[in-house]
User: Fold UDP-glucose 6-dehydrogenase from Ramlibacter agri.
Amino acid sequence: MNVTIIGTGYVGLVTGACLAELGNNVFCLDVDQAKIHLLNAGGMPIHEPGLEEIIARNVEEGRLVFSSDPAAATAFADVQFIAVGTPPDEDGAADLQYVLAAARSIGRHMQGFKAVVDKSTVPVGTAEKVAAAIREELAARGADIEFAVASNPEFLKEGAAVEDFMRPDRIVLGVDETPAGERALALLRELYRPFNRNHERTRVMDVRSAEFTKYAANAMLATRISFMNELANLADRVGADIELVRQGIGSDPRIGYSFLYAGTGYGGSCFPKDVDALCRTASENGHGLQILDAVQRVNQAQKKVLLEKVWAQFGRRLAGRSFAVWGLAFKPGTDDMREAPSRSIIEALLRAGATVRAHDPVAQEQAARALAGDLADHPELLRNLTFVPKPLDAAQGADALIVLTEWKSYKSPNLRALREALRSPLVLDGRNIYDLHAMAAAGLTYLGIGRNNLALLKEQMQVAPITVANEVTREEPIEVLVELAAQAAAETKALGEEAS
Ligand SMILES: NC(=O)C1=CN([C@@H]2O[C@H](COP(=O)(O)OP(=O)(O)OC[C@H]3O[C@@H](n4cnc5c(N)ncnc54)[C@H](O)[C@@H]3O)[C@@H](O)[C@H]2O)C=CC1
Ligand SMILES: O=C(O)[C@H]1O[C@H](OP(=O)(O)OP(=O)(O)OC[C@H]2O[C@@H](n3ccc(=O)[nH]c3=O)[C@H](O)[C@@H]2O)[C@H](O)[C@@H](O)[C@@H]1O
Assistant:
């Protein structure tokens, strides 16, 4: 089948490549000409395991093309996927400008029937807006051409996107019960037929329910994470280990093990914006979502738990301190820095006067770009940030190691070499990937998230046990902490000036 994908980002590129891999002819359209040039030159705009090989093979075999020509994209296929970004607007609602621009482009160029399929994550009711935009363009041309707008939300995870797309748990198809809707459904059923060989994975429903399903899934997953993060902070205070608790509850099949890892708060391009957008939809409809409001508040607070631990150990004046950071991407397997915890933590450390040496196997370039933007008001602070080629290089002479992404290559470090490299033997693990006892045996003071095993710490700790720094309360957003850190840096500088 011929298929057009509008938007060649994390979702569009994976969808296009995987559909081509199944034998379809795929036309990938993007307004970003630099991205199209890069793809046509054999380059990759994103890091996603396995994707490069699939793209190379399908381009070579003539089933996958990249272009910025909207007329050619519309003419190419009856099925037009919209996979453009839906970032939050200033109120937290999903900004639909890119989706509606893609819809208008289809309306301007279509000559025959089109099944327009929303793959972007869009609020309930968006399909109707997409249809209205297409109708307006058709009316402007004096054309009357049949089309349907369907919803086919995407559930892939970055870092495992190819695997997730190729082995979906379910394929949600939202269509209207109209002749055009039925026609669209028949095309989509045919396109997804190879995924249903052993099990029927397709769930057909009305469009609004399909749109809602996507937000419900992300909101449920985010809720599990905030739930565990809140319990982890209590575990810290009562001397329990949240990792053992996670295993203890995950073994109940009604609960399951997935998405119960405590950490530095959920990040990435989707959970924060999708939970926010769902809360916006709820309040617009006069039905506030109390659980999700709490999920968001807990997540905001969680982003600063590691910083609180840093401050508890070193105070808020960090001039002269040096920190090693392992992991920059918001999760392993990707170079995506959108809402990555590393950004706010490194920014706060630098603004407090510390130096940072950071390592990430794939995201260093993206991180440098993102942090340059975050510190645009104080670009001189970037001089205190260096990226190093090997994890142990980062630890050399550092006051603490802070682990922010659970890359496989960080899971079994040479602890003796790590201990020797660090100036003070402190490891702050934002991903709970290390064994408490192995750390202690190597002479390292280990602080995870919700793993403050009091007995072990009493035995091992050279430094004061964790207390929350006076001025810091968990209700304050990360921006306030960054501000506090900047004040502390200014105070430190003033003290230095007084002394000299
Ligand atoms: N990133 C992820 O893991 C997932 C994302 N989603 C959803 O999928 C959608 C896309 O997300 P990403 O792929 O991460 O976005 P992205 O930002 O990586 O890519 C979007 C692409 O669309 C292009 N674009 C914008 N307007 C266009 C237009 N009018 N015509 C052609 N191209 C245009 C941009 O240049 C960009 O290359 C969002 O709604 C997101 O919430 C859903 C599941 C997973
Ligand atoms: O709508 C989307 O864009 C996608 O959002 C998430 O995928 P993604 O953001 O790529 O990555 P996740 O693995 O879900 O991680 C999201 C965040 O949650 C954090 N997380 C995840 C799991 C966990 O147990 N604990 C935890 O803190 C991760 O570190 C990361 O910051 C969903 O898992 C996908 O199903 C969905 O399609």
Remarks:
- DSSP finds 20 helices and 14 strands in the chain.
- Confidence is low (pLDDT under 50) at residues 462-477.
- Residues 2-205 form a domain with the Rossmann fold fold (CATH 3.40.50.720).
